[in-house]
Predict the structure.
Amino acid sequence: MAVIEIENVTKIYQMGETTVAALRGVSLQVEKGEMVSIMGPSGSGKSTLMNIIGCLDQPTEGVYRLDNVDVSKMNDDELADIRNKKIGFVFQSFNLLPRTAALAQVELPMIYAGAPDRRKRALDALQQVGLGDRVHHRPNELSGGQQQRVAIARALVNHPAIMLADEPTGNLDSVSGEDIMNIFKRLNREQGMTVILVTHDPDVAAHAARVIHVKDGKVTV
């Protein structure tokens, strides 16, 4: 069953008098429980595609169905609700609050969602990523790999259907990067989570079962 269905999606930006077509009629599907990489060079349109998949942006034309619901015409509040309930985000830059301990970082999405048992769920998520002994550490007391683990735990706590990772190893050394990729593979294999990796790195893309190539705003493979 497809969790993501994108049909003939275009995205056009107006920059002054210049029109830029970031996506040009993209169609693709991602099945529930798949681990997929979206790969392309800078300027290929992969980041625009990621923003649409993550409900951070909307297509100019075309249809995007998430869990069989058309989200392509939703308003900002509806998109925010979808993001909070269905999508976990992990970014290259970690996006952690500098003076906040790991446990409180992971609790944040649950505060926005009004979720119960926040402390227990945050502790469980940190345990899942191997940081049960670092729950009171701030970002400046953690390595880059540990900071990314906190970010993954934060993305996990609302039990999203999809984990969307944008260059998740871009700021890490090769050993830490491999550890992070193994976490994503374990989430996919053991929990059946749908994982989408957005990357320009073929070594990262190779961890996925399927690679979708984007070039000049189109899917090429």
